[in-house]
Amino acid sequence: CIDLGTLYKDTGHFTYDPGFGSTAATKSAITYIDGDQGVLLYRGYPIEQLAEKSSFLEVAYLLLNGELPKQAEFASFEHQITHHTMMHESLKNFFQGFHHNAHPMAMLAASVASLSAFYHDDLDVDNPEDRKLAAIRLIAKMPTIAAAAYRYSIGWPMRYPRNNLEYVTRFLHMMFEVPSEPLQLNPVAAKALDLLFILHADHEQNASTSTVRLVGSTGANPYASIAAGITALWGPAHGGANEAVLKMLEEIGTPDKVETAVKRAKDKNDNFRLMGFGHRVYKNFDPRAKIIREMCHKVLGELGVNDPLLDVAMKLEEAALKDEYFVERKLYPNVDFYSGIIYKALGIPTEMFTVMFAIARTAGWIAHWIEQHETPGARIGRPRQVYTGSAPRDFVPADKR
Ligand code: ACO
User: Fold this and answer.
1) Name one GO molecular function term (predicted).
2) Counting C-beta atoms within 10 Å of the first and last residue's C-beta, which end of the chain has fewer, N or C?
C-alpha cells in the first residue's frame, strides 16, 4: 500500500471497513436487530407477534407509516393498493423481448426499472404525496409483474389481477390460474405465503436496502432505486440464497450424504458453503428462521406434502449445530434455509424463490427510500477507498511499452 501522504496533500482520515461490518451509514427508525439476542423488531413490534397476528399488507402499512393502521386506515390503504395492481398495458410488450428462458429476477429487475418510463414524468421526489403514490404503485404492481415474468417463462398468457381477492391470494391466482381449470386454492397456501412475506418485509441495512438508499441518495427516482435493490438481492450471498439452498439440498440428495457436505463446507480449499447458514448480524439464531422452521413442518403436514428434502435439511441443521467449525463461527440457519422447502410445497418453482423475497422486501425498500427523503440534510452516499495502485508515473507511448 503506497503512502500517498508523501505524494499528495493529506485528505484527512477515514475508516477502512471492508463489507461495512461496523459502519452505520444512516440513522433509521424502521427496523431494529439485536444479532446477539436474536431479536427483530419492525417499528418496535417483535417479529414473532407480527407473524402470528398481522398480515403482510398491514405490516407494509406499518413499515411505511410507523404505526399499525386503525381499521379505516387499513381499508383505505388496501383500497389504494388494489386500485394500482394493473401494470401499464405497454409493459406487457417488454416481456416479448426477453429470451424464453430468461431468469424471472432478470425480468423483474428490468420491468421495475422500466416503471420509471411510465410513472416518472410527473413524480416529484420532494413531494410526500408523490412519494406515497410511488410506494403504493410499487407494492401493488410487484406481484403482477412477478407473476407475468413467471408465466412468460413457461409460455403461458398473462393473467390480469383479480381485484376482488386479497393481496397474496390475488398473486397466487395470477401465478397459477389457467382458463380451463379455475384455481382451487388451499387457504393454507395463502396463509403460509403471507407469513413468509411478513418475515421478509424488512431487515434494516442489508445489501439490497443499502443499495436502494445509495441509489436513492443521488436523487434517482423510486423505480430505478428499487430496481437496483432487486439486482442486489439476486446474489446467492443475499436473497438468492433461498434458490441456492434448494439446489444444494437437491444436490446432497439424501440424509446420509450430509456429512460429506459439512466436511466440504469446512474445507477452505473448496468454495462450497452451506447455503442458508450464517449471517452478518445474527450471531445467535435468526428469529425468522425459528418461525419458518416451525411453519415448514406445519405447512407440509397441512398440505399433505412429504418432501424428502426436509429430512436432508433437518439432518444438515443437526450436523452443523453440533460441529465445532459452525459453533465457533456462530453459523446458524438463516431465514432462507427452510423458506425454499415451503415455496416448493406451495408449487412455486425454484427460479421464483428470490422473486418472492423481492415482492415482500419491496415494502421495506420503499419505506427506507421514503425515510431517506424525509430526512433533512441527507447527503449523497459516497464511500471512500484505500488506494493500492501505482505511484504517479509518466505516460509511455505505445511503441515504447
Ligand atoms: N458455510 C461455511 N462457512 C461459512 C459460511 C457458510 N454458509 N458462512 C460463513 N462461513 C465462514 C467463513 O468461511 C468465515 O470463516 P473464517 O473465519 O475461517 O474465514 C467465517 O464463517 C465468517 O464468514 P464471513 O463470510 O466473513 O461472514 P459474513 O458476515 O461476511 O457473511 C454471509 C455472511 C454472506 C451470510 C455468509 O455467512 C454466507 O455466505 N452464507 C451463505 C449464504 C447465505 O445463506 N446467504 C443468506 C444470508 S441471509 C439474507 O441475505 C437474506
Assistant:
1) citrate synthase activity
2) C
ipTM of the complex: 0.96
- Determine whether 279 is an active site residue: yes
Residue nearest to atom 15 of ligand 1 (CA): 329
- Angstrom distance (rounded) from CA 64 to CA 6: 49
Annotated active-site residue 336? The verdict is yes
Give all strands of the β-sheet with 39-42 in edge-to-edge order: 31-34, 39-42, 45-46
Compute CA 185 distance to the chain's CA centroid, rounded to the nearest angstrom: 25
Residue recorded with cell 445489501: 207
Q: What is residue 128's predicted lDDT score, i.e. its pLDDT?
A: 94
Cα separation, 131 vs 1, whole angstroms: 45
| Cβ of residue 240 lying under 6 Å from some atom of ligand 1 | no
Pick the residue whose CA is nearest to atom 21 on ligand 1: 329
What mean pLDDT do residues 92-112 have?
92
Residue 299 to residue 304: CA distance in whole angstroms: 8
Q: Does any ligand 1 atom lie closer than 6 A to the CB of residue 237?
A: yes
Which positions ≥6 away from 203 have C-beta within 8 Å?
Answer: 31, 33, 40, 209, 361, 364
Active-site pick, 200, 203, 279, 368: 279
Q: How far apart are CA 160 and CA 87, in angstroms?
A: 9
The crossing angle, in degrees rounded to 10, of helices 222-234 and 353-374 is 140
Q: How far is CA 136 from CA 46, 140, 290, in A?
A: 24, 6, 31
Cell of 340: 425454499
pLDDT tens track for 303-317: 999 999 999 999 999
Answer whether 278 contacts ligand 1 (Cβ < 6 A). Answer: yes
How remote is the CA of residue 134 from the centroid of ligand 1, in Å?
Answer: 35
SS3 314: helix
Q: What is the pLDDT of residues 23-61, one digit of tens each?
A: 999 999 999 999 999 999 999 999 999 999 999 999 999
User: Which residue in this structure is represented by grid cell 422447502?
Assistant: 341
Closest Cα partner for 362 from 187, 192, 115?
A: 115
3-state secondary structure at position 268: coil
pLDDT tens-digit map of 325-343: 999 999 999 999 999 999 9
The active-site residue out of 103, 200, 336, 368 is 336
For residue range 349-360, what is the model confidence (pLDDT) as tens digits? 999 999 999 999
